[in-house]
Structure formats: C-alpha cells, structure tokens
Amino acid sequence: MKIIENKRNDLAKRKEIKVIVSAEKNPGFESSLKSISEHFKSPAENIAMKEIKSKFGRDTFLITAFVYDSVSDKELFEPKKKLKKEAQAK
Q1: Of the residues 54, 56, 58, 82, which has the maximum number of CB atoms within 10 A of its CB?
Q2: Cα–Cα distance for residue pair 50/48, rounded to 1 Å
Q3: Cα 56 to Cα 4: distance, rounded to the nearest angstrom
Q4: How high is the pLDDT of residue 90?
C-alpha cells in the first residue's frame, strides 16, 4: 500500500486519503476497508469507502476513503442509505 494523499479535514473531523494497492484482481470494498483499517489503526465502522479505480490491464488500484474520528462524525457527514420499497411496505 502506497499513500498518495493524506489530508486532514478538521471541519469534518476526518482524514481524506488516497492510496494505491497492487493486486491481481479488484480488491473490493470489504478487503480494502480491512486493509485501510489495519494500516491507519482505526475501526472499520469509522471509515467511509468512496471509490476504487483502475485502468484496463493494470494491477494497481487507486482507493479513495475518508477515515473519521468517530462513528457519530461519520453519521453526521455521510448520506443515509435508502431502504428498499419492499422493506418500507412491511
């Protein structure tokens, strides 16, 4: 894991990071979340994964994520997930 950008956003109480990871296939959100959690020594519930990008034929992936100071700070800034219509009807 190579850190490209690590900015501190004091207003939002988070670190905005961009890292490059080498892998043979797309690492996916779950494994990327776990590796970022271990590297930055922060609980996984404090991390908001934004995107995983790659270019065709390459084995490097650009991962963008926000590492919040606490879960309450994350809930304050991250959008809420919408419920599916079937779950709302019940």
Answers
A1: 54
A2: 6
A3: 20
A4: 58
Rounded to an integer, what distance in angstroms lies between the CA atom of residue 2 and that of residue 62? 10
Q: For 10-28, how does the pLDDT look when each residue is reduced to its tens digit (9 = 90+)? A: 999 999 999 999 988 888 8
Whether 32 and 14 have beta carbons less than 8 Å apart is answered as: no
Q: Is 3 exposed, middle or buried (0-12, 13-18, 19+ CB in 10 A)?
A: exposed
Q: What tokens appear for 66 in the block?
A: 């926000």
Instruction: Give the C-alpha distances (Å, rounded to integers) separating 35 from 12, 41, 46, 85.
Output: 23, 10, 13, 34
Burial 51-85 (b: 16+ CB within 10 A, else e): ebebeeeeeebebbbbbbeeeeebeeeeeeeeeee
